[in-house]
Amino acid sequence: MFKLARYLKPYKKEFILGPLFKLLEAIFELLLPTIMALMINDGVNRHDPSFVFRAGGLMAAMAVLGFLSALVCQYFAARASQGFGTELRNDLFSRIQALSVAQLDAFGTQTLTNRLTNDVNTLQLSVAMLIRLVVRAPFICVGAIVMAMILNLRLSLILIASAPVFVAIIWIIMSRSSPLYRAYQKKLDSISVVVRENLSGVRVIRAFAKTADEKRRFDAANDDLTGTALLVGRVSALMNPLTTVAVNAGILAILWVGGSMVADGTLMQGQIIAFVNYVTQTLLALIVVSNLVIIFTRASASGKRVIEILEAVPDMPNRDGEAPRFAADSPAIEFENVSFGYGGGTALRGLSLSIGRGETLGIIGGTGAGKSTLVSLAARFYDPTEGEIRIDGVPVRDIPDGALRAKVGLAPQKAVLFTGTIAENIRFGKPGASDEEVAEAAHIAQASEFIGKLPLGYETPMERGGVNFSGGQKQRINLARALVSKPEILLLDDVSSALDYSTDAAMRRALKAARAGLTTIIVSQRAASIRDADRILVLDNGAVAGIGGHDELVRSCAAYRDIIESQA
Amino acid sequence: MKEKTFRKLIPYLGGKRILLPLSAACAVLGAAGTLAAPALIGKAIDRMVKGKPDLPGIAAIIAALAAVYLVSNLFQWLLSLITNRVSYLTARKLRSALFGKLAPLPLSFFDSSAHGDVISRFVNDVDAVCDGLLQGFAQVLSGAAMILGATVFMVALSPSMAVLVVVLTPLSILTARFVAKNSKRNFREQADIVGALNGYAEEMIEGRREVKAFGLRNEALGRFSEMNAELYRAGVRAQFYSSLANPSTRIVNNLTYAIVGVVGSLAAISGTLTVGGITSFLIYSTLFAKPFNDITNVLTQIQSAFAGARRVFAILDLEPEKPDGKDAPLPDVRGRIAFENVRFSYDKTRSLIEGLDLDIPYGSSVAIVGKTGAGKTTLVNLLMRFYDVDGGRISLGGTDIREFGRDELRRSFGMVLQDTWLFSGTVRENIAYSKPGASEAEIVEAARSAGAHDFIARLAGGYEARISDSGGGLSQGQKQLITIARVMLADPPMFILDEATSSIDTRTELHVQKALKRLTAGRTSFVIAHRLSTIRGADLILVLEDGRIVEAGSHAALLKANGSYARLYANRLETA
């Protein structure tokens, strides 16, 4: 929790002045009864109406001053808490962006976004409460206890004795409820996951007529969440009555002990009245404290979740810096004895491969053979568990991100398109690309024809994930996005699966004509798409089954022959 | 508006029949204790007279006081228990209603809304409502009880001054209302920005591969911090303005206190009120004003709650799809399918399908071909009633499909889409999704037919391997195989395969196609595919262009006709 304190640093001023003004407000407010007492004692008893009016005027002035102090405090509290939250969110998002794909996969999208909004919100609220209440409550408590001690030391021992009881109650309830709050936030994540799956899988869910089952699944998650909430509610609901009972017991003891002291003549009646008043003041302040404790317990659960992200060390940190010296005479891409697996499995084993400059390499192979994995490694979404990948002679691990992205363009298999217009989506490949560049990329990708038919053309908005476009249209925008930056190396991961053969062929022709000298890796299921490639790599179960030209493979590679025959 | 939102919220209040009256009772009894205790303490002190102490009397009062404390704490405890219960049950009911609302919403809602924003309503907005209830509910209830009790005591002491207090104090409520009204906009703005921020963050985290591949990191950070800065401005405004309510209430109450003091003192000077009377009166007037201060103290939470509730109701109030008719006939799953003069478009300004006629006898295999964007998937959307036709009708066995229950209609089709959808769960659960309670043997058999068994067996955990949120580790083709196994297990009377095998390698595909052929033999099937091997054997091939059927017939007939299809086919041969 204290690790988050540094986000409060820029608000030092607010943190000192806010509570200070709150204290001023409290003092002005506490002065009111005193002035009232004066008004009654001096004004009424002396039958002095003008004194009454003056005292009344003074009280009005106090009220106004209190109001102004409160305004200042609230302003500081709002600024500091919102500023705290804003900085924290920025850092969290930036950390999330720095984590590797594998790390983000492990967290999951939903818990990350929840921590970014819901958890930060809880923390933010606790900061505002802290500023508003942190000084006032303890001030009143300590003040009342000191005054009580001055009044009568013996009697004040009762008050002091109840303090440890009070602390014990708070400690027990905090330690009980803190894990529950963490569980609550986690269950909130589960709810979000179900909702998200239902939003994105609506077609399948409806196709299988599973809405009722999904509702049951959601209700189960919802009940689970509510169960935890009720449990934590039951635990924290004890806080207030228990602390009040502790203080009430103190009052009873004071009355009893005080009664006999008055009888002995060691205590005056008026002192008991004052004593009871101080205890009541303390009680009210303590109730505020116990509410604060509940808020902070919840905040600490959120704090832990947020800190977990902040402390995640990016396992593939973004590197900045100068582009390295690329060797002009080395192959464009080299894989040297590369192995890789997802979570225990093996997707690629001991792959060695060298792709020359300007070469087009086709990759074909069975489902799950490791084709996409190979592309992902070349784009450095993951680092191999063994071996090395080099681009222009430089290990990819040593290439700064900017330089790598400038060199390598990628059109992924299942493209995620973003909310925005078509032009904006293509420009993601090269921010600031001119209209001509965008149009040229779309033209090569065979997208200009259908875009041209849209009433808004390139300015047509794409809805979330591009659902208002067909699979083939999305693939072509995806391709244009990869082409617009004119990379030296282009990785196409099965981008023509939803294209008809003629469009696919036209695309490859256009690509060849417009981007001479481009090193290309084309992953495809279609023999036709890769047939004209300079070389074809046949992958089988994570290893090379054959590599060479079409004719050569037909002669020498049984796996390739099988594939060709299956498509004849 | 606020009142309207509040009225809408009432039906969702958890346990309103039993818990609400019970909590009111608890509030009254708890407040009674708070009001009675000072009187008892006063009595005890009166008995402490020097040298002549009435110790038994004091003991009796202390015993009574202990009882009052216990009872009042007990009820306050009950009240906070009930408050918790009401709040969390309300949250559950709201979430459940929101989710239940998703089912009857038209598909266009899912296609056009930012999912992160919708999720934010389930998480952040419902949470805000819950928090507002949690903080505000007990305050309002026990506040009301205190106000009532204090009024009674004040009237007993001095009716005329009681009128003064009762008239002046609510002024503070008016001030608070004024403040609340003016800050409402800020709260709405804040909740909307949180939703948008959630949506954006979700998109950027979901598209992590693209963000990395295109080096969009800085751009994403920039856009995020821009939205975040907007949130900061809205947040500070909302926080600050709504937090003005409390000091404004306090200043009104403090001024009232001063006025009462002055008026009371003048009355005492003129002899109509005793000094002791003023003192007690002032205590009660403070008690009277306190709840007003307390309520405005949690106004920020209450206002966030209203802003959240508004966003929740924005979804709950959406127009649902036309509900299924009562006594809807069961679809004749072996009937012929006919499109009659069907007209449809997603965007009402741009026509897509016009005057489409089709007649498909049961048991036909229909292949739909055409360039991307020609409307192939739209036909599927209409058949499955994901969207309803704008004009004309589609019938199954002679009955308009709009007369059937949607679930019954959809269940008669087995559908596989190019966009695979797997949920977080095991491989087994994902396959068995189409047939709950399927036996182990059936599941393995379906996986075998789909050509998925071998790779599943190789997964760590086999059929019990967990598919995560991101599906990490499974290739696109493998995901497709699992969805095909799902349909094979369902064994439906009709099929829709929309690019179902696009990411599967052709050897595996051959195997899958064979299995599908066995399965679909003698049943109606619609196949959208680019691979001609899949299309060639169809009974009927439909060639779609710009939403119209330009050609229809068997492979041989269409080749002979030498039209669009022949061109497509030749093209394939030429490039292959």
Low-confidence stretches of chain A at least 5 residues in length (pLDDT < 50)? none
- Give the class-level CATH name of the largest domain in chain A: Alpha Beta
C-alpha termini separation of chain B: 65 Å
- The residue-averaged pLDDT of chain A reads 87
Based on secondary structure, the structural category of chain B is alpha/beta
CATH architecture of the largest domain in chain A: 3-Layer(aba) Sandwich
* Overall domain count of chain B: 2
Structural class of chain A: alpha/beta
Shape of chain A: elongated
Instruction: Determine the CATH superfamily of the largest domain in chain B.
Output: P-loop containing nucleotide triphosphate hydrolases
Q: So how many helices of chain A?
A: 20
Task: Describe the structure in your own words.
The complex is a heterodimer of chains A (568) and B (576). By secondary structure, chain A is an alpha/beta fold. Chain A folds into two domains: 135-310, ABC transporter transmembrane region fold (Up-down Bundle); 333-566, 3-Layer(aba) Sandwich (Rossmann fold). In chain A, 64% of the residues lie in helices and 11% in strands. Chain A starts with 11 loop residues before the first helix and ends with a helix. The model of chain A has no long low-confidence stretch (mean pLDDT 87). By secondary structure, chain B is an alpha/beta fold. In chain B, 64% of the residues lie in helices and 10% in strands. Chain B contains 22 helices and twelve strands. In chain B, helix 2 runs parallel beside helix 5 and helix 7 (170-206) packs across helix 12. At the A-B interface, helix 1, helix 2, helix 3, helix 4 and helix 6 of A face helix 2, helix 3, helix 4, helix 5 and helix 7 of B.
What's the helix and strand layout?
The complex is a heterodimer of chains A (568) and B (576).
Chain A lengths: L11 H33 L4 H50 L2 H7 L1 H25 L2 H16 L1 H48 L1 H6 L3 H27 L1 H26 L4 H42 L22 E8 L7 E8 L4 E6 L5 H8 L7 E6 L2 E2 L5 H7 E4 L8 E2 H6 L7 H10 L3 H6 L7 E2 L8 H13 L5 E5 L7 H14 L4 E5 L3 H4 L4 E6 L2 E6 L1 H7 L1 H9 L2
Parallel strand pairs in A: 3-10, 3-11, 6-9, 9-10
Antiparallel strand pairs in A: 1-2, 1-4, 4-5, 7-8, 11-12
Helix pairs in contact in A: 1-2, 2-4, 4-6, 4-10, 5-6, 5-10, 6-8, 6-9, 6-10, 9-10, 14-16, 19-20
Chain B lengths: L1 H8 L9 H28 L8 H48 L4 H6 L2 H43 L1 H10 L1 H37 L1 H6 L3 H27 L1 H26 L4 H23 L1 H18 L20 E8 L8 E8 L4 E6 L5 H8 L7 E6 L2 E2 L5 H6 L1 E4 L8 E2 H5 L8 H10 L3 H6 L7 E2 L8 H15 L3 E5 L7 H15 L3 E5 L3 H5 L3 E6 L2 E6 L1 H7 L2 H12 L1
Parallel strand pairs in B: 3-10, 3-11, 6-9, 9-10
Antiparallel strand pairs in B: 1-2, 1-4, 4-5, 7-8, 11-12
